[in-house]
Specification:
heterodimer; A: alpha/beta; 7 strands; B: Alpha-Beta Plaits
Chain lengths: 216, 72
């Protein structure tokens, strides 16, 4: 099957077609376990494409979290370290301080970064650690069955708030981007979406900028 | 200047999420009635109006779409 596709690609190139887009080689051939249509796949692809474009594949270390993306190290063809739940910024701090020339990024969901790892996240940002944190926020704990997370929006239904999140009962959602943007140690904070092609292109530019900012 | 495009879909990797279907400006992608080895209705091209804009490839979570284009 794979050889058929490669043969068809070669045929098109011979017919005068030029390549616009193809899957980057920084992603491995493993089939991702994410649900159909999940934004994790898109985000993985964008990070891999940025690493590919910058030519830093042999000089980048990722830190994967606990959550749906716990197996992220199977999909990137770069060095990876698994961290305890929520502690990816702490692990990434150590990696970056010991290898200052390496590009370090963490890949975290909202249950990891905004719930159990809030302290590590805020302190790593406030110390001004020279690393990139990719925060994938879907507003629920997707892996365990869709329970309410700190980032669940007001009125949003989840397994534990079947009538929508109520402010008087569950409090307000945590807005991590706005929270981190007030800290003096952060250099670049942005919120992006991957819901349509234009948003995906913007998100890719943002990830590129975040990685470029690690250069001294 | 117009472009003619071709997309190649790795149907065995496709999960049939259908994210690429509504974003195609030329409406040339649709879910197939057939299923692949994992039982997903994979996507396929239904006409040759593709212009090679790569919108489908941009949103595909699994990166199964390769896009090629040439001037006509």
């Amino acid at each position: 099957m794979n050889q058929d596709i490669e043969a068809r690609k070669q045929e098109l190139l011979k017919e005068g077609y030029e390549e616009v887009y193809t899957r980057t080689k920084v992603l491995t051939d493993a089939v991702m376990h994410y649900c159909p249509g999940c934004g994790h796949g898109t985000t993985h692809r964008l990070i891999a494409e940025v690493i590919d474009e910058m030519g830093i594949q042999d000089n980048v270390v990722g830190v994967s979290p606990v959550g749906c993306s716990v197996l992220a190290y199977n999909y990137f063809d770069v060095d990876f370290q698994e961290a305890a739940h929520g502690r990816a910024p702490a692990v990434a701090t150590a990696i970056k301080r010991l290898n200052p020339d390496t590009f370090v990024f963490t890949y975290q969901g909202d249950g990891d970064l905004a719930a159990i790892g809030t302290a590590e996240t805020i302190h790593a940002a406030n110390r001004g650690e020279n690393m990139t944190m990719i925060f994938v926020n879907n507003g629920i704990y997707g892996m365990t069955g869709g329970q309410m997370a700190p980032t669940t929006l007001v009125g949003m239904r989840s397994a534990t708030t079947p009538y929508g999140r109520r402010v008087d009962l569950n409090g307000y959602p945590l807005r991590m981007t706005e929270l981190l943007s007030t800290l003096p140690g952060t250099y670049y904070v942005t919120r992006q979406s991957v819901q349509n092609p234009a948003a995906v292109r913007k998100a890719k530019a943002a990830i590129r900028k975040a990685f470029e900012n690690q250069r001294r | 200047m117009a472009f003619k495009g071709q997309i190649i879909i790795d149907t065995e990797r496709c999960k049939g999420c259908g994210v690429c279907v509504p974003v195609c400006p030329m409406k040339c992608i649709a879910l197939s009635k057939n299923v692949n080895g994992k039982g997903y209705n994979y996507t396929e091209t239904v006409n040759d109006s593709c212009i090679g804009c790569a919108s489908c490839a941009m949103v595909c979570p699994d990166g199964v779409i390769s896009v090629y284009k040439k001037k006509i």
